[in-house]
Amino acid sequence: MSLVLQLRSERAKINTMLQALAKLEAGGEALSAEQLSQFTTLEAEFNALTDKISRAEQAERMAAASAVPVSESAQGRTSPPPGHISGSGPAEAPGVRMAQMVRLLAAAGGNQQQAAQMAQQGGFSTDVAMALSTVTPGAGGVLVPQNFATEIIEALRPMSVVRKMGTRSLPLNNGNLTMPRITGNTVVTYIGTETDIPITGMTFADTKLSAKKAAAIVPISNDLIATAGISPRIDDIVVSDLAVSMGLSEDLHFTRADGSGSLPKGMRYWAQAFNVLPAPSTAGITLEKIDLFCGGMMLRIETANVMMKDCGWLMHPRVFRWLQSLRDGNGNKAYPEIEQGMFKGYPVGLSNQIPVNLGTDGNETEFYFVNFADMMIGEDMDLTISFSSEAAYKDAEGNMVSAFQRDQTLVKVIAKHDFGPRHVESIVVAVAVKWGAGM
């Protein structure tokens, strides 16, 4: 444990005793002379420790700022990539500093003090060395500094389809956010010269977001950890693994989670009943029916008095490939723009997190037309990571895998966020979709 953490732990114990004495007095019990003397002593010790912590933190920041490599030619387990400049590092790419922090902590077996020394001696970025020196342990692992957490959330944007389509990210203050939404617009009318102006106004409701805990487990090869400083591509791999795992979880829950228990509510369950439409059956379907149905989905939002900004489709690749294969009577592609990822003038987002085994026969899916500018992700910047080289996890096929047997280290990432729309009318869902089921 670092000196800063040790001092903070001692101060926390003293604070507990101080609070106990204060509660006695607040409850109407008069403190004895001995208790008053004890309170004064504890108060002095608390203030002295606070000063020590301040000096220790400043010393660690100075040590991190002056860190240099032990050997200019050092390469290997803890050294920076070739071309790395001590004290700066390739921190421009989103998530790189977070990846370096994760790898060093994993290499040190979660020991923060050892990881900080490795960062200093290996010549990593001063930001990484200082973060490892001053970071505090949380309930489920190590709390990631907010500037690093912000970077990894930015790295999620190209990985999470829901984010990539234009969903807005907003901070959750103290884990909560309340956003007013308009449910009825002001009515403007023309009047005569001697006619009273009618009283009218907007009607509002609230969308309330509260932090929900999401966890992702990322297996990292111990070979990658052991060669941490040899190639800058290692950082890209770690960032990508973190972002993909978290992005898949977000897409699954922001799309279809039902909001029960600790889950956020996804678009499927935010959608109003009149905007949930059964798709035409594939039996006897024609291009005209497809056009009318999809145009009707678009019309629902176009007539909802919302700004048509960042609208798009969200579907499983099965539906996309089926639409791509459609031909008109002359053999031409019915929707040629689909080759550019567009359908009926709007971009398409593809996600395997939308199931294709819905319905009684297990062959149905859904697809969505959404005004993503009205979708919100409330972000709590408290990102927590923890490590294990002995735990087991389930792979994509549902098989249990031993990290110890595979020579891997598991990184558990815990994030807190919530999802909701500013206007529920901005979500239209096609259900009972069997399009492409026979492909």
Structure description:
The chain is α+β, with helices and mostly antiparallel strands. Among the domains are: 3-65; 172-219 and 242-254 and 377-419, no CATH class; 267-375 and 422-433, hypothetical protein PF0899 domain (hypothetical protein PF0899 fold). The protein contains 13 helices and 16 strands. It has helices at residues 3-26, 33-65, 96-107, 112-122, 126-134, 146-156, 161-164, 222-226, 233-256, 267-270, 287-302, 317-325, 403-406; strands at 137-138, 141-144, 168-171, 176-184, 203-210, 212-221, 276-278, 311-315, 342-343, 346-350, 365-371, 375-388, 392-394, 400-402, 408-421, 427-433. Strands 1, 2, 3, 6, 12 and 15 form a six-stranded mixed sheet that branches. Helix 3 (96-107) packs across helix 5. The longest helix has 33 residues, at 33-65. The chain is globular and about 90 Å long. The termini are far apart. Mean pLDDT is 80; it is low at 67-91.
CATH superfamily of the domain at 267-375 and 422-433: hypothetical protein PF0899 domain
Task: Tell me the number of helical segments per DSSP (H or I, 4 or more residues long).
Answer: 13
Give the CATH topology of the domain at 267-375 and 422-433.
hypothetical protein PF0899 fold
Structural class: alpha+beta
Order of helix and strand elements from N to C terminus? HHHHHEEHHEEEEHHHEHEHEEEEEEHEE
Q: Distance N terminus to C terminus?
A: 58 Å
Major sheet size, sense and barrel closure: 6 strands, mixed
Strand content: 15-25%
Which CATH architecture of the domain at 267-375 and 422-433 would you pick?
Answer: 2-Layer Sandwich
The share of residues in helices is: 25-40%
Q: Provide the gyration radius in Å.
A: 28 Å
Region (Disordered): 64-93
Protein name: Phage major capsid protein
Domain Phage capsid-like C-terminal: 140-430
Organism: Pseudomonas helleri
